[in-house]
Amino acid sequence: MIEKHDNTEGYCRKLGHFLSFNYCRTVNNNLPCSKVLDCWFQHFPIQQFIKDNYSEKEHSIIFEPPEPKLQSLSEILQNAQQRLGKDDIK
Ligand code: SF4
C-alpha cells in the first residue's frame, strides 16, 4: 500500500521543519521528492518502497538531476526576447 508511511514524520532540511512522508511522496507532480532516499532511509526501507511502487520510467523522473541554473536563465532570457519581439536583449 503506497500510503503505508504517509503519517511518518521527519525533518526536512530543505524547508526547515518537520513534515509527514505524504508530502515527500507527492511533492514532485505526485511523485516523490528527489531527496527522498537521503531523507527517509533511517525511518523505513525507502529504497524498497521506491522499487515496489514506481516504474523504471518514474525512477528516472524522480531522480533526474535538476536543470542547470545557467540553462534556466538562458531560457528566461529567450522567453523575454520572444515576448518583446526583440533579438537584441543581452
Ligand atoms: S524528501 Fe524532500 S521534501 Fe521530503 S524531507 Fe527530504 S528534502 Fe524535504
Question: What would you note in describing this structure?
Answer:
The protein has 90 residues and is mainly α. It contains 5 helices and 2 strands. It has one domain (9-84). It has helices at residues 21-26, 36-40, 46-53, 56-62, 69-84; strands at 9-12, 17-20. It has a two-stranded antiparallel ribbon with strand order 1-2. A hairpin with a 4-residue loop joins strand 1 (9-12) and strand 2 (17-20). The longest helix is centred in the last third of the chain and has 16 residues, at 69-84. It is elongated and about 55 Å long. Iron/sulfur cluster binds next to strand 1 and helix 2. Iron/sulfur cluster is lined by residues 10, 12, 14-15, 24, 27, 33, 35-36, 39.
In a nutshell, what does this entry contain?
This protein is mainly alpha-helical and 90 residues long.
Extended strand count: 2
Overall structural class, as computed from helix and strand content, comes to mainly alpha
Strand arrangement, major sheet: 1-2
Contiguous helical run count: 5
Query: What bound compounds does this protein have?
Result: iron/sulfur cluster
Q: Which spans of ≥5 residues are poorly predicted at pLDDT below 50?
A: none
Q: Mean of the pLDDT scores? A: 91
Radius of gyration from the alpha-carbon trace, in angstroms: 18 Å
H and E order:
EEHHHHH
> How many domains would you count in the coordinates?
1
Helical content (DSSP H or I, runs of 4+): 40-55%
* Largest β sheet strand count, sense and barrel closure: 2 strands, antiparallel
Shape designation = elongated
- Please give the alpha-carbon distance between the first and last residues: 52 Å
How much strand content do the residues show?
A: 5-15%
